[in-house]
Amino acid sequence: MTIEILTVLPELLESPFAHSILKRANEKGLLQVRLHSLRKWAVNDYGQVDDYQYGGGAGMVMMCEPLASAIEALAGEKKFDEVIYMTPDGERLNQRIANQLSLKENLLIICGHYKGIDERIREHYITREISIGDYVLSGGELPAAILVDAIGRLIPGVLNDETSALFDSFQDNLLAPPVYTRPAIFRDWKVPDILLSGDPKKVDEWRHEQSLFRTSRRRPDLLDDEGL
Ligand code: ADE
What we know:
Number of domains: 2
Strand content: 15-25%
CATH class of the largest domain: Alpha Beta
Mean pLDDT: 95
Bound molecules: adenine
Radius of gyration: 21 Å
Order of helices and strands: EHEEEHEHEHEHEEHH
Shape: elongated
Oligomer: single chain
Number of strands: 9
């Protein structure tokens, strides 16, 4: 899979993809993330990519011209399955969306800034708008990093058996069960006996019960969800 990210702050996104699982995905050739500075398509030598909004009001708006030129230049190299705009008024990211997107070949992600991007770009180029939650960040870069992380770890072959996403919270609309590691007794806090029983069937049953219990306590809404 390839993911192109268009941003005014590429430096902000260098680190998240240079470590751990996403770094490994890149080394295995399973995920290539490329960062593109929107200023390359600026309207003048000052690197301008935003302007005042029509109708007045505080805050700048990212201009059509640099965005359209950048999107067209990138789309000239390959066909994108989705052109995604990160915005607080998009559909809220969840595991179902991450699963869907992990099956695509080529994605383009646009990071907004200031007041957002000119509406005409949304109408004519964007195929999907995604929010990471009901709060406003100062730009779309951190949301883009979160989206790429959520997608990247689901690409077949990225995780090994040990880190498999199959048992993640949300993967079957249930939260993950509690986990423990050595020592079996820390202070006088004991690991549940069943996990030390050596009986995989019982362990699986216990984990499933714990998942159900935890989900009904913490996120009962997930149990009524239509599923992934
Ligand atoms: N840009 C600013 N806030 C955002 C959010 N919550 N989700 C996605 N993009 C954003």
